[in-house]
Every structure is written in structure tokens, then in C-alpha cells.
């Protein structure tokens, strides 16, 4: 089996490095040291740290999409069960990290939206993709009478992503699953109810 390229090593390691240290806390020295590659390799593969962060964000988003494929897009499950499966799967991911790191999308949104137009624009695209995935399953649930049509699916999806990111932010501060569990309890007891 071929060895991964140095670029690939930097990207794969970079997901964890940026997730754990943040953009500002991870210089090129830390990024390459964590990847186990010479520091000079970075500039051979990335024109800037912003460009690198964009690639890392895409890789992280691809991993999220895999989870969405097995949960939100699982046509064997009713819509509400798909959403529950998605949040439960991400919760397992967060637990494995000791409730410390939250979501890279949310972390970069808080840290970089005022400092990098390149990353801010890229984060808008990623958030739109996440919101669209939620909206798709919500529309399915509404069409099947499983979720009330009182609210627009796009509005609910935007609310879901914002609330979920907020719960993960609070989880990081508390280093506790409680904000995540509270989010899920309220969501499934209120917003994701069938028509009355």
C-alpha cells in the first residue's frame, strides 16, 4: 500500500490540530510537528495558513457528511429518528473527545469570522450545506405528517444548527454533556412534534 503524501498527512493531522488548538493557537510549526513532517513542507503544499484551514474545514465537513449519510439520509428511518440518530452519533464523537473541542465549524466561526474573509466565506458555504441537510429531512418529516408544518423547514434548520452549535459551545465551557442533552430534550419535546 502506498504511503500517504506529505500533503495528506498535514491535512489529516491538521483537522485535529486546528480542532484542539484553534486557528490562532496553531502555527505552522505546531501544524507540521503534529503531522510529523518537516516545517518546509507546509509552504510546498499550501499557499497560506488560510488556504490550509479551508482544506482542513473541507475534510472535517466530509467526515460530518459521512455521519449524515448514515443518519439523516437513511431512508429506512422516519425523519425524527434520522435527526435523533444524527445528534446521538455526534454526541458519541463529542464524548470521545472528553466534551472538550466542540465542532470545528463553530470554533472557526467564533474565532475567524472577524479576521479572515476567506474563511468567513468558506464557513458560510459549510453552514449552508449543513442547514440544507437538516432542511431536507425536515421537509420529509413534514410531508409525511411526522413534523408540524407550522414553521418553515428552512427556518427550523437554521434554528437547529444555531442551537446545536450553541449547545456545543456551552458543552466545551462546562466540559459536560449536560448542554447537549438539554438541547436534545427540548428539541424533541417541542420543535420536532407532529401536527396537533
Automatic annotation (TrEMBL):
Q: Which domain of life is it from?
A: Bacteria
* InterPro entries named among the record's database cross-references: Homeodomain-like_sf, HTH_TetR, Tet_transcr_reg_TetR-rel_C_sf, TetR_C
DNA-binding region(s) in UniProt: 27-46
Pfam families found in the cross-reference section:
TetR_C_13, TetR_N
Q: Does the keyword Transcription apply?
A: yes
Keywords on record: DNA-binding, Transcription, Transcription regulation
What is an example of a GO molecular function annotated in this UniProt entry? DNA binding
HTH tetR-type domain sequence ranges: 4-64
Q: What is this protein called?
A: TetR family transcriptional regulator
Organism annotation: Rhizobium daejeonense
Amino acid at each position: 500500500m502506498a504511503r500517504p503524501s506529505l500533503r495528506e498527512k498535514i491535512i489529516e493531522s491538521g483537522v485535529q490540530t486546528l480542532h484542539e488548538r484553534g486557528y490562532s493557537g496553531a502555527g505552522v510549526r505546531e501544524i507540521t510537528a503534529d503531522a510529523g513532517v518537516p516545517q518546509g513542507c507546509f509552504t510546498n503544499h499550501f499557499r497560506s495558513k488560510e488556504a490550509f484551514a479551508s482544506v482542513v474545514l473541507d475534510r472535517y465537513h466530509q467526515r460530518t457528511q459521512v455521519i449524515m449519510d448514515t443518519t439523516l439520509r437513511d431512508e429506512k428511518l422516519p425523519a425524527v429518528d434520522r435527526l435523533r440518530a444524527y445528534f446521538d452519533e455526534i454526541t458519541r464523537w463529542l464524548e470521545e473527545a472528553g466534551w472538550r473541542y466542540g465542532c470545528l465549524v463553530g470554533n472557526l466561526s467564533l474565532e475567524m469570522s472577524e479576521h479572515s474573509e476567506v474563511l468567513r466565506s468558506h464557513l458560510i458555504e459549510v453552514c449552508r450545506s449543513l442547514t440544507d441537510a437538516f432542511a431536507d429531512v425536515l421537509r420529509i418529516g413534514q410531508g409525511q405528517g411526522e413534523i408540524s408544518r407550522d414553521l418553515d423547514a428552512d427556518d427550523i434548520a437554521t434554528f437547529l444548527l444555531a442551537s446545536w452549535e450553541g449547545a456545543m459551545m456551552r458543552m466545551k465551557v462546562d466540559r459536560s454533556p449536560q448542554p447537549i442533552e438539554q438541547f436534545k430534550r427540548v428539541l424533541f419535546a417541542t420543535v420536532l412534534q407532529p401536527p396537533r
